[in-house]
């Protein structure tokens, strides 16, 4: 997964170096293995890539686009030059056509006075030529212009914000705007873009035939921070609502409700509030927050899980426990948790509640890296899963449940990996 | 009645339209810096005449006035007031609506305005520090925190640097910008010979802004309805500060996000300032006066700055709503017999003004200038909207050209914001450049989306100021510096 960030300071006095770094830091939970930062240096474009967030400090200009990813791969950004005119595009996920895209766009922009039409026209040709979805992207030109554009299917989002009279900010998540001291203004719709230059700032739409598939459910389920706002929806409130929905599947007495740190905590709070039981802290992480699900290396992933799971024994020992998690992909986190709860703590019962439906397909759009052969729900029966995970009961939200909550919040999600086209209206 | 209007822009065009409807059979004469075809038309349609003259030259304007021999002169913009045009005209015995040079000091010098508020203990005042010396300012700014840096003299509504500095992790970066900006601003301000203080550093506040305009003869204060301007160049309150990209008004005397009590308080502040000003300068204030206000958590109604004239584009909102004889009111104010005057407005409707500007505005006047531009006024009129000509000039080739600032203001009204918004959005499409140069305007002005956002922000700050009032903290910001004690100085930053 990835986080994209544009900062456009209208006043040349700003040096974005440190500001860009803090902006990226606010998006680090979306991936922190690989950073790309691009800027204008005198009359040319310059891009830097690195595993370290400090790469942002190489920026000294007042305009920059940057991204952070959970893994490094090809086709995440591309620079193209044409007779001294230069552009760079950064995308939110690997895009095999990126080089063709920038080649076409650099020519179109160079030869056209109407900047937005030039961009729109190229998007249009890629819409018809490539049935595969175009990712959300940012383009920076050597004339210090920026295009920020949300892909037509709308899997990922863009929040727009500003800092006083001085900056326009666009980010994959609203928290980056908060952390930079800016004000959140609005969200881009599917296929909507914004053009920013020194003297213009215009939002525009692009024609798209496929239509909006909706936001990837994992944005709200797992990826975003609790303090983010996604399309006007508080991530925290949404998570609590799913947790409350899940509580209806509780069919026996439990002593305590806990959540797997730390994404699942609001779900557990919503669940506990709904059944009027205590929500308790259960685990404490070591070495800061790590996103185990985003780790690409299986060993790294298990290390991340182990480090975030030191149990608070007093709240768990000898008790009947309802444990809540946002989703279950491979089940390795839950397996680890149940082993800790059983063997290291000694609990009486474990009832596992998952705040999303079973994951049964890979992601056809390459937004989430889900390998169907690793998906627990796609390969194991419920009984087998229960035995493997060593839990006394196992519950998922139904597709209908998620659909209902999505409608209540007025949002549509892509649900392909859960076996439906979309959730919500 | 012969009326001479001094000024060249959209505000003067709005004044002309308001005056034109009078029952006093007005003949409108205009002295303007360039050929504004809107003003030209109002003059010729009323049997008046227009003159091209430098509006900041007392001598030239007196010359025009002597030729016209008007019954009333209305001085529109602030710069002629600063330059002594109003005083020169009064000295010659003309009846003039417009602040004198000494009264206009309230707009010209931010230091004078702020000092006046502190001296007379007027509510809604902010902490500030002013500088004549760049070194001193640089040293101060090093340790300043959450502040606004402004030119100490009115400079076309621009040059304000708002540096929200509430995050220590970015305060060093912001301090760098503040320091560079102080130097840059000192350089720019050095060309103004008419002030001592060059820059002013103020406590930063946030909330919703609105303009409270009044007409006064120095004794009587006649309030106008509240209007909200939109200073950011671009949509969603993004981008550099401008003179105003549009404004909204109505229904009635307050805005949907301001309470009657806040309106009352605002007018009280504005009236108190006028009283203090008259006392301080020893001259009556005759003309329009306005408080650029902000509803903040610190004070509730808070003064950002003052205008010694009608706001631009705020004056444009008055065009569809004023029902009284506006010329009569201006004339009564100019003759110091405003007492008893009533201003009737159409309280049922709302008005939306949208300015259309060439790309380059506001920071690169050169880029934004000299683009041929056309407008289909008939179509705009069909929509029920009015066109005001602002920074556009008719050249000898019979073509309109941009002058670098906001070219046109479109004034629309309706029974609801939705209705007025639809008209305004439609109307702006009838303006285009002939050379393909990009124009911009703000789609969001008057939209329900933005209005809802204003209400949210107003509610938030309302909660804050009311809680602070309850705790006896209204207007106060306390800082504890260990070893020094409790200070009232919100200008201090994290970096010490």
CATH topology heading of the largest domain in chain A: Glutamine Phosphoribosylpyrophosphate, subunit 1, domain 1
Number of strands of chain A: 24
CATH architecture of the largest domain in chain B: 2-Layer Sandwich
What is the SS-derived class of chain B? alpha+beta
Number of strands of chain B: 27
Radius of gyration of chain A: 22 Å
Quickly count the helices of chain B.
16
User: What is the CATH-assigned architecture of the largest domain in chain A?
Assistant: 4-Layer Sandwich
Could you say which structural class the secondary elements and strand pairing of chain A correspond to?
A: alpha+beta
Helix content of chain B: 25-40%
* Terminus-to-terminus distance of chain B: 64 Å
Biggest sheet of chain A: strands side by side, in what order?
Answer: 3-2-4-1-10-9-11
CATH homologous superfamily title of the largest domain in chain A = Aminohydrolase, N-terminal nucleophile (Ntn) domain
Strand content of chain A: 25-35%
Overall mean pLDDT score of chain A? 93
The greatest inter-chain interface is formed by:
A-B, 30 and 39 residues
CATH-wise, what's the superfamily of the largest domain in chain B? ATP-grasp fold, B domain
Q: Ranges of chain B with pLDDT <50 over ≥5 residues?
A: none
Using the CA coordinates, give the radius of gyration of chain B: 22 Å
Quaternary state of this entry equals heterodimer
Q: Give the end-to-end Cα distance of chain A, rounded to a whole number of Å.
A: 25 Å
């Amino acid at each position: 997964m990835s986080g994209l960030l544009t900062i456009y300071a209208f006043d040349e006095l700003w040096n974005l170096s440190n500001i860009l770094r803090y902006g990226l830091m606010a998006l680090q939970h979306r991936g922190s293995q690989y950073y790309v930062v691009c800027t204008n240096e005198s009359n040319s474009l310059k891009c830097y890539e690195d595993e370290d967030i400090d790469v942002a400090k190489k920026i000294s200009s007042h305009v920059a686009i940057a991204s952070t990813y959970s893994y490094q791969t090809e086709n995440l950004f591309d620079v193209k030059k044409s007779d001294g005119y230069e552009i760079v595009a950064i995308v939110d996920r690997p895009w095999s056509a990126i080089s063709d895209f920038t080649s076409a766009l650099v020519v179109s922009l160079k030869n056209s006075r109407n900047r937005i039409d030039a961009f729109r026209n190229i998007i249009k040709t890629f819409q018809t030529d490539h049935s595969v979805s175009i990712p959300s992207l940012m383009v920076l030109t050597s004339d210090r212009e920026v295009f920020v554009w949300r892909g037509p299917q709308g899997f990922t989002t863009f929040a727009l914000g500003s800092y006083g009279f001085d900056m326009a900010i666009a980010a994959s998540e609203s928290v980056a705007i908060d952390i930079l001291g800016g004000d959140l203004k609005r969200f881009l719709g599917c296929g909507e873009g914004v053009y920013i230059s020194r003297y213009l700032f215009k939002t525009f739409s692009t024609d798209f035939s496929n239509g909006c598939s909706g936001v990837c459910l994992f944005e709200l389920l797992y990826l975003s921070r609790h303090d983010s706002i996604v399309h006007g929806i508080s991530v925290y409130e949404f998570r609590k609502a799913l947790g409350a929905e899940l509580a209806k599947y509780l069919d026996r007495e439990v002593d305590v409700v806990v959540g797997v740190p730390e994404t699942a905590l609001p779900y557990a709070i919503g669940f506990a509030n709904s059944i009027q039981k205590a929500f308790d802290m259960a685990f404490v992480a070591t070495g800061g927050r790590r996103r185990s699900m985003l780790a690409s290396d299986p060993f790294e992933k298990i290390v991340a899980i182990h480090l975030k799971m030191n149990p608070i024994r007093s709240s768990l020992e000898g008790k009947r426990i309802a444990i809540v998690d946002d989703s279950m992909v491979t089940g390795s986190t839950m397996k680890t948790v149940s082993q800790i709860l059983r063997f290291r703590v000694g609990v009486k019962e474990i009832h596992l509640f998952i705040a999303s439906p079973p994951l049964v397909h890979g992601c056809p759009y390459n937004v989430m890296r889900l390998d169907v052969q690793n998906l627990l729900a796609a390969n194991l029966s419920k009984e087998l899963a229960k035995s493997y995970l060593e839990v006394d009961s196992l519950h998922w939200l139904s597709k209908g449940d998620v659909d209902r909550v999505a409608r209540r919040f007025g949002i549509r999600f892509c649900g392909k990996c859960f076996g439906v086209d979309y959730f919500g209206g | 009645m012969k009326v001479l209007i001094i000024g060249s822009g959209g505000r003067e065009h709005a004044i002309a339209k308001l005056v034109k409807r009078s029952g006093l059979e007005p003949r409108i004469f205009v002295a303007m810096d360039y050929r504004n075809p809107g003003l030209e038309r109002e003059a010729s349609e009323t049997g008046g005449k227009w003159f091209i003259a430098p509006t900041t030259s007392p001598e030239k304007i007196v010359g025009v006035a002597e030729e016209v021999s008007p019954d009333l002169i209305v001085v529109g913009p602030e710069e002629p007031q600063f330059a002594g045009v109003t005083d020169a005209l009064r000295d010659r015995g003309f009846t003039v609506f417009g602040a004198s040079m000494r009264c206009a000091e309230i707009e010209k010098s931010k230091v004078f305005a702020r000092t006046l508020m502190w001296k007379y203990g007027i509510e809604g005042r902010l902490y500030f520090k002013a500088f004549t010396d760049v070194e001193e300012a640089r040293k101060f700014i090093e340790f300043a925190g959450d502040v606004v840096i402004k030119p100490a003299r009115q400079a076309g509504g621009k040059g304000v640097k708002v540096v929200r500095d509430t995050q220590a992790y970015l305060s060093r970066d912001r301090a760098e910008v503040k320091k560079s900006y102080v130097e840059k601003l000192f350089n720019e301000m050095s060309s103004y010979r008419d002030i001592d203080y060059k820059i002013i550093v103020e406590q930063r506040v946030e909330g919703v802004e609105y303009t409270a305009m009044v007409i006064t003869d120095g004794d009587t204060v006649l309030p106008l309805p509240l209007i909200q301007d939109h200073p950011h160049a671009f949509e969603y309150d993004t981008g550099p500060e401008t003179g105003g990209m549009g404004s909204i008004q109505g229904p009635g005397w307050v805005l949907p996000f301001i309470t009657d009590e806040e309106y009352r308080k605002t007018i009280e502040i504005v009236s108190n300032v006028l009283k203090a000003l008259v006392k301080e300068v020893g001259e009556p204030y005759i003309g329009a006066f306005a408080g650029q206000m902000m509803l903040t958590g610190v004070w509730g109604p808070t003064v950002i700055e003052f205008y010694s004239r009608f706001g631009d584009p705020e004056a444009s909102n008055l065009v569809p709503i004023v029902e009284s004889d506006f010329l009569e009111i201006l004339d009564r104010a100019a003759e110091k017999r405003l007492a008893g005057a009533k201003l009737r407005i159409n309280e049922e409707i709302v008005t939306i003004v949208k300015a259309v500007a060439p790309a380059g505005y506001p920071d690169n006047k050169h880029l934004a200038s000299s683009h041929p531009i056309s407008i289909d006024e008939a179509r705009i009129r069909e929509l029920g909207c009015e066109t005001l000509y602002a920074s556009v000039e008719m050249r000898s080739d019979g073509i309109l050209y941009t002058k670098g600032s906001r070219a046109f203001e479109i004034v629309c009204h309706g029974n609801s914001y939705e209705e007025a918004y639809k008209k305004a959005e439609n109307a702006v499409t009838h303006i285009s450049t002939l050379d393909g140069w990009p124009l911009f305007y703000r789609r969001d002005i008057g939209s329900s989306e933005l209005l809802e956002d204003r209400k949210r922000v107003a509610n938030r700050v309302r909660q804050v100021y009311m809680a602070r009032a309850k705790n006896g903290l209204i207007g106060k910001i306390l800082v504890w510096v260990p070893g020094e004690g409790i200070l009232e100085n919100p200008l201090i930053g994290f970096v010490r």
